[in-house]
Write a structure and sequence with these properties.
The structure is a single chain. The chain is of the alpha+beta class. It has a single domain, classed as Orthogonal Bundle (Arc Repressor Mutant, subunit A), CATH 1.10.10.10. It has five helices and three strands. It is globular.
């Protein structure tokens, strides 16, 4: 049986994934905009999006040809901010 809290924190455990999460602070964002705003290959970003989705950090919705990602819960922003403040 998976520990969902562990899976959640494991999903957040990479600098690129934190950048992706921060890209979604203002609401759902098309994957094309995520690719434009983060310096990494499309394949690498797709891999990290999948990890975040599997960790229940992100959800996605297909609209026509575009895929939009969003945070599963607004409290995720608080989690990231709290941890960043603790590490200062």
């Amino acid at each position: 049986m998976k520990d969902t809290a562990c899976e959640f924190f494991k999903a957040l455990g990479h600098p690129l994934r934190i950048k992706i999460v921060k890209e979604l602070y203002d609401g759902p964002t098309c994957v094309c905009h995520i690719n434009d705003n983060i310096e990494s290959s499309q394949a690498n970003i797709s891999k990290h999006l999948r990890i975040l989705k599997n960790g229940n950090v992100l959800s996605c919705k297909k609209v026509g040809m575009y895929t939009y990602y969003s945070l599963t819960d607004e409290k995720i922003k608080d989690v990231v901010k709290i941890v960043e403040e603790m590490m200062k």
